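ok trying again, last paste got cut off:
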Amino acid sequence: MEKDPLCEEVLYNTAFIINKEGKLVGKYRKFYLYPPEHQYFKPGKDFPVVDLGMVRAGVAICYDHAFPELFRILSLKGAQVIFIPSAIPKGYEYLLNLRVRARAQDNQIFVAHVNRVGQEDNIQYCGLSKVANPKGEIVAEASSSQDEILYVDLDLSLILREKRQERVSRSLRPEAYEYILRLI
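nice, full thing came through this time. structure:
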């Protein structure tokens, strides 16, 4: 949670991006708020991609994973990996599994989903943090019941290989997004 520096009554659901030296290098304010969150938070307006030295990274938070356009924006801005911190409860594992793989494959990048595990009050979280490669394959997965740290070597050459095999970004047609705007 972050207070707006210009108005302390305004709160954002914010992920802070810290490099390996422990320095704050960026922040992402959740763009798509889950319906009950609207009573507490304002949505963010920016899609930062930061250079962490060995990889360019973006962030999406929890419910953001339901919106492919957010991932498309981050990948077009140069993200090679998108991190998704979240708190998905048991019963919704299918969404975590499907969307992590889909967002990675759709954009031919790595997606690292970091999900809460354990219980708070009456909510049991499903854990299952995971990393998907640019083909949408799960390359690492954590437990559903205990805290774990996943160490994953990302072969960034897979991104270029996938993008050469199927040139999705070159086939994008911006007029499709204009059409969507007319429908909503």
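cool. The chain is about 25% helix and 30% strand. Residues 2-183 form a domain with the Nitrilase/N-carbamoyl-D-aminoacid amidohydrolase fold (CATH 3.60.110.10).
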